[in-house]
Specification:
It catalyses: 6-phospho-D-glucono-1,5-lactone + H2O = 6-phospho-D-gluconate + H(+). The protein has about 230 residues and is α/β, with parallel strands linked by helices. It has 8 helices and 10 strands. Bound molecules: 6-phosphogluconic acid.
Length: about 230
Amino acid sequence: MIKESVFKSFDDKTALENQLAERIAKQLQEAVDTRGQASLIVSGGSTPVKLFQLLSHKNVEWSEVYITLADERWVDNDSDASNEKLVRTHLLQNKAHTAKFRGLKNMFSSPEEGCAMAIEQLANFSNPFDVVVLGMGNDGHTCSWFPCSKEIEEALSTEKLCVAVNPGSAPNPRLSLSKTAILASRQIYLHIVGEKKLSVYRQALENEDANTMPIRAVLAQHKTPVDVYWSA
Ligand SMILES: O=C(O)C(O)[C@@H](O)[C@H](O)[C@H](O)COP(=O)(O)O
């Protein structure tokens, strides 16, 4: 059993979202105050929508905040499957509309071909990243580290910041930040909601193999602080 991460439990998702948005905004502004800029890595999926909306209203010097994605589906940016579209619709609004968003999807026809250009997009981001917000799937994936993909070992071992992934169990080829990129951060949050995800999270703590339970690559490490925010 690993115990490196901090587990915060909330009775309802609204309380979780309010506290997490407050904490992220504070950390971003502290980064701007201390180092002149901040970086925020966010995930797609359905879980973070309300969190994005709350964050977009926070008082942060957003024009000094660089934002990118933990992973992206290789679809057009106006597709409903696009994580960039999700971020543009819910996060880059209100006070946050001045943030410097750098997407991972580009004009290349596959994530394999687009990988180098996506890495270039990260050149201005502070190293380490200030805040990373991850989600988790019911198969234990985070980012696009799918246990079913042939690229899983590469995603968890490459020194490169991005990796192309072709998941067998989920639609669309993807481009994902690698484990190396994600762990090069000051703070990681894992944002999960519901009993099913709580049980997957518990399984990940017990399962010794990160290739079959990739979220473990984030949970079972001592380098970067991870706070797990869970609500029923
Ligand atoms: O683009 C994506 O799909 C992701 O970034 C992915 O890692 C996501 O965070 C989980 O699959 C959880 O997704 P839900 O929030 O929809 O459960």
